[in-house]
Write the structure tokens for this entry.
Amino acid sequence: MDEIINKVASSGLVTVDLEEMYPQGERVVLDIKDQLWQGLALKEKDFREWIKTNDWSVYQNKLVAVTCSVDAIIPNWAFMLVASKLEGVAKRVVFGNAEMLEIILFSELISTINPEDYRDKRLVIKGCSDRPVPTSAYVELVNKLQPVAKSIMFGEPCSTVPVFKR
């Protein structure tokens, strides 16, 4: 009887799974649209009162995206005030929507990867995931690892798309 050999395991491929690195924490979008006067503009006095009286503890240890989803006149200092109140409360605060939050979180994560750990390796960047991984993360990962990797493929070890080969 022939022995079954796992060719993928013996191939020397190193799988890089961004989903395994998924930044943990509850994501929240803080939309300031409800603080606008007639949905058009921000009144400083009213906004500062909201800043003073709002319960910021609901954002404790959360990943927060601060945005305004309506087309309105919002001065930059308004977002700065919100960020200032969330400092020391939220785990992370960014300007933008939920998608921008993910992009920034993954960018920060990828910046911590040591490319030397992947020097002269044959890499497979895993493509399927149950959690949302922004396309920008895959692009950043290739930019970071291509200078040191022997090859980079995308997909699953049993079915890959070549991306780069030295």
